[in-house]
Every structure is written in C-alpha cells, then in structure tokens.
Amino acid sequence: MKEIEIASFDEYREIISEHSLRKWIYRGQNNSNYKLESSLFRAFAKNASIFYRRKTTKKLKILKGRETEMLNSVKRNAHLFLEHYPKPKADFDWLALMQHYGAPTRLLDFTFSPYIALYFAISGANLKPVAVYCIDYESFEKKQKERHGENYENLCGRVLKYEKEIDKSVLICSEPEFSNTRLLAQQGVFLIPNTLDYSHEEILKHYGDDDCCIKIIIRFKCFRQIIEELSKMNITAGTVYPGFEGFCKSFENIGSLSVRSIRHITNE
After folding, report:
1. Would you say 243 and 182 are in contact if contact means Cβ atoms under 8 Å apart?
2. Lowest model confidence (mean pLDDT) among 62-66, 112-116, 179-183, 225-229
3. CA distance 31 to 118
4. Which is nearest to 94 in space by CA: 102, 104, 83, 86?
C-alpha cells in the first residue's frame, strides 16, 4: 500500500483532485496505526483470545458460525424496536442496519467523499497522526475479475459463506437498498469481504494493492487548518450526523475554532 504523508489541507486536496467521482472510495481513521479491519473481525479475534486461551485458531472458526445466528436474532427482534426494516431475505441490508446501530458486522464503512473521510479521520483524534485510506475500487474490481474470471460473480454472491483459500477472497463495494438519513448524508458505501478468514487489509494485499490503494497520513500540526477548511465546506458533525445528535456533536471543536463559529448574529 502506497503511503503519503502530508502537512497541509492543500496537499490533501491536490492528491484527491486527480480521483474520478465515485470511482474512488475513502475511509478516515483517527489513528494511522489502525488497520483496515471490520468490527466483527476484531470482535472474533478479541473474544477468541479472552475465552479460548489455547487453540485460538480452531476456536476462531467456531465463532465465525455465530455470525448467522446473530443476523437471525436481529431479524426476529427488530420489529420490537423499529417501525421500518429490510425485507427478510435482504441479508446485506440487514447487515447495514446492524452496522448503523452498533452491532459488529463484516462491513467496513467507506464514503465516496474524500472530505467526509477526512472529517472522520480527525474527529476524536488525539495528538497522534491520522490516516485516510483511498481505494481505486474500479481498478481493484478489475483485478478481481481478471483473477477469478467467470467465478467472480459466484464469489460475490457468497457473502455469508467461508472461502478457505487465499485466491478466492474478494471485496465487494456496495450500497444497501434499504438506506437511512445518516448513510445519505455521509455518501456512505460499504466494502464487504466474502470471507472472515482475512481482514480487509489482508485481502487487498492478496491482489497487490500498491497501484490502487493509497494511505494518506496526516500529522497533528495541520488539524486546525483542516477543521477550518471543512467547516467552510459545511462538513461538520451537524451535517454528517443529521438531527439533534449531530447538532450537539458539532460543538466537538469548540476549543479549536473561534467563538464566531457558534455565536449568534443579531441586530441588537
């Protein structure tokens, strides 16, 4: 994976200006050391080490069978909490809904907007460098099709199956049919593996990711400039998280921006 370290918002804008609309997808992470791993992949790894101190690899395979049970449980009980929910057989839409409400899933959130990804990278960050992952998914999908040929579509359809061989792992970029206001506001899209044996980052490496995946590392010293520039573009918590929750979250940068950013203008 190609890494580029930048020191200003202008450098970031210069890099992404060469990317075609909706051909590239982006993910911001508020620590540059974090890898591209789904919440379910991390949960399995953590819980296997906690509850099964020996033979972790064998127990990890057992845990993977519980993904379907978790999905079925959500389907059975969603009507108790929600008025609207996906069709019973629309598993991907159910996974997206579960992701929205905080359940661990194999989905990894991306966005078509490099600026929204940048917002997520610096949101909640501390003094450590952050990162934005940029994936030329159109080129990556082409690589997958070239390797698997006619079998590619079949692999994409086996989202809840477990392919054991490295050369049969794929990543699928998709938008759910059953959307929500937050997903729309964030221009959200998901990257979905057809296997849980490998993380998203490991699957990218299986195909040689150097020419279609860029990791932009951003140092702390330019955070303030980025916050100000994103605010000018109206990319704040208030727009990324629609509703009162987003409005309250929009005060997260209260110490770094001028008080003019929230002061009410009046004629009095």
Report:
1. no
2. 62-66
3. 12
4. 86
Contacts 24+ apart (CB under 8 A), 123-127: 123/28, 123/30, 123/237, 123/252, 124/30, 124/252, 125/30, 125/31, 125/220, 125/223, 126/30, 127/220
**Residues whose CB is less than 8 angstroms from the CB of residue 138 and which lie 6 or more positions away in sequence, other chains included:** 20, 23
- Residue-level pLDDT at 207: 80
- For residue 130 the two structure tokens come to 């952050």
DSSP string across 159-216: TTS---SGGG--EEEE--SS--HHHHHTTEEEEEES-SSS-HHHHHHHT--TTTEEEE
Provide the residue type at 166 as one letter. Answer: I
Task: Provide the pLDDT confidence category of residue 209 given band limits of 50, 70 and 90.
Answer: low
Task: Please provide the distance, in angstroms rounded to a whole number, between the alpha carbons at the two ends of the chain.
Answer: 56
Pairing status of strand 188-193 against strand 171-174:
antiparallel
- Identify the pLDDT of residue 98: 93
pLDDT per position as a tens digit, 25-69? 999 999 999 999 999 998 888 776 666 555 555 555 666 678 888
Q: Which residues have CB under 8 Å from 76's CB, separation 6+?
A: none
Residue indicated by tokens 């819980």: 47
Higher pLDDT, 166 or 68: 68
